[in-house]
Amino acid sequence: MSFFLRLICLFLTSAFFYGQECTEFTFPNNGADNIEVNTTLTWTNVLGYNGYILSIGTTPQGTDILDRKPIGTNPFYTPPLGLPDNITMYATLSLVPYDGPPISCDELVFTTVEITTPPTCSILITPDNNAGSVTIITDIEWEYVPTATGYYLSIGTTPNGNEIVNNLDIKNELSYDPPEDLPQNSNIYVKIEPYNDIGIATSCIEEIFTTSFAVYVCDPYISEATGELIYRAPIINLPNIVGICSDELPYTISSNDNADGFRWFLTNSGSEETLLSETQSVAISTPGKYRFEAYNKITTDAGDIECVSSKLIDVVASEEATITSINITNTAMGKTININATGGGQYEYSLDNRDGPYQDSPIFTEILSGDHIAFVRDKNGCGITQRTVDRDISQKDFPSFFTPNGDGINDHWQYIPPIENFEAVIEVIHIFNQYGSLIQQINPNRMGWDGTFNNRQMPQSDYWYKASFLNQKPIMGHFTLKR
């Protein structure tokens, strides 16, 4: 077989095995200790598949935490109820082809941190604290608390009351469906106390909401004249999160919603609220949690009432991002570029164009070789950060000739390390003669080839090399030995 045919076979074999690689976990590292119980598992994204199946257990190949859950195409997953503490965990990913059975990949093993303190308190999600005109058939939902393994729930119609639910152990769930309707037109007091093996959260604040009037006065209804659905309470269109630049405070938030009246509250102090404004706008002086109410006045036989819509709004301070690193993975279909950025903002990402288009994911796939620039833009307009993406090692990083004549100048042929900080790592370099025979294997971190084979000087001629990498495709080329 000719030398060129051998080269082609080497390339095809490399491409075939490269395309068959499974995904690998990128966090935690295999064998890692002291991993937080609310950690997010991440892995390298693999193209050409319909998604992933994830299992998590406390035994090898176990599924007692998560049993073969299809999780779509995102290369990350956060267990919604956290993980048990101080125990060895086993996570297994499977690739889901568009046809055929799932393909199992290597198992990840790690150990969670030991919890030594009780959990902190939770807050209501549904209904919001201080919400009004809540339907009497509402479910009660609350936020997950890291390290919590269960929750005690009390519900009453008076402060610290528990006549509806008395310190019920909900176990490790984040919602409760009352078996009976809640009292109508009443204040409902809710206390949630997370617990774990160490103890129970202390000083948790009681939260409150108000149920609607009898016969659901404020509920939507269908107009007999037009057949349209009519809402008595206003529809709120403000987002759940409002980002502002740190240097823009104080900042004015305005609502364009149609309503008879408005109220803005500061809710950072728990169940206690501070009324800030009774207009459509409010001046925000600090980031934090705020509640916006919009209401319409309705006349009933029992008197005038307010049909209220309420929304809890997080005001967060944004800032320009810092790009900490850029990871490059070479695949059979091109580069995968992962931009790692930190900062106190909400960010989106673009490659090679400051004006976009931008995407929420920091991962770009099937990118052609060449010079690239990464851009990270704060979604709240607080600035754009850019950084050059390190290029790959290429044939220009290998000498085109050398002169092993013993004069101390250019006597060895070797890879020339570039000035830039490269992601690529050379494992070994093989040198062949013009007939395809291997005559030397050199370490890229040592002196290089001196132009001999079995202590004999090789003749002046062209020679071929193949540089093999840990994390990119091999590079092949030729150079000249001059005497």
TrEMBL record:
Query: What InterPro entries does the entry give?
Result: Ig-like_fold, T9SS_type_B
Instruction: Kindly state which keywords UniProt assigns to this record, in alphabetical order.
Output: Signal
Signal sequence, renumbered to the chain: 1-19
Q: What is this protein called?
A: Gliding motility-associated C-terminal domain-containing protein
Q: Which Pfam families match?
A: CHU_C
Top-level taxon in the UniProt lineage: Bacteria
Gene3D superfamilies (alphabetical): Immunoglobulins
Species name for this entry?
Maribacter aquivivus
